[in-house]
Specification:
It is a single chain. The protein is mostly helical and 165 residues long. The protein has a domain of 109 residues. Helices cover 60% and strands 8% of the residues. The chain has a two-stranded antiparallel ribbon with strand order 1-2. β1 and β2 form a beta hairpin. The radius of gyration is 18 Å and the shape is globular. The two termini are 23 Å apart.
Length: 165
């Protein structure tokens, strides 16, 4: 079993000196895919409500995502006050904060950690989702990255990944 340093080394990706063309291409793909299939943004939006509801002490009951890209996050708790206001406002910046956080992690060389964090958030979404359509969107969203080949871990102390045979 690999040690913790090997796992951390695997999650760390060497930073790209100037990723502007790559980021522009990724942004273009997200614009095209998001225009045609905006449901992952809806899930990120609803998870923003759910995470802040949990942080402010509310009990999250579930998330429903509909095929028309609308969604509802239900929670129980005090109906007034700053906690409720924060939960209501949390959904709108959530997709932006997720994208900015992933970009920052990738740029800092921790792309693998970002993917792991998204995996944890999607697992939490699976526990909270209450609609068959939302479950289908989550399953489709996980099917693509899970079908990709995972890189082999780098030897400890190696600055670059091993070359393929």
């Amino acid at each position: 079993m690999p040690g913790m340093t090997q796992v951390i080394d695997w999650m760390r990706v060497p930073p790209v000196p100037w990723p502007a063309p790559l980021l522009a291409a990724v942004a273009l793909v997200f614009l095209v895919v998001g225009w045609r299939w905006p449901h992952p943004g809806t899930i990120a939006h609803e998870m923003g409500h759910a995470v802040l509801a949990w942080v402010t002490g509310r009990q999250v009951c579930g998330i429903t995502v509909h095929s028309d890209t609308s969604g509802v996050t239900t929670s129980r708790g005090r109906p007034r006050g700053p906690g409720m206001l924060l939960v209501v406002l949390a959904g709108y910046p959530a997709p932006l904060l997720v994208a900015a956080g992933l970009t920052w992690l990738w740029r800092a060389g921790w792309g693998g950690a970002g993917v792991a964090l998204i995996g944890v958030l999607l697992a939490a979404a699976f526990l909270l989702i209450r609609s068959w359509f939302g479950g289908a969107v989550l399953t489709a969203g996980l099917a693509w990255p899970c079908s990709r080949p995972w890189p082999s871990p780098r030897p400890a102390g190696s600055a670059t990944p091993p070359r393929p045979p």
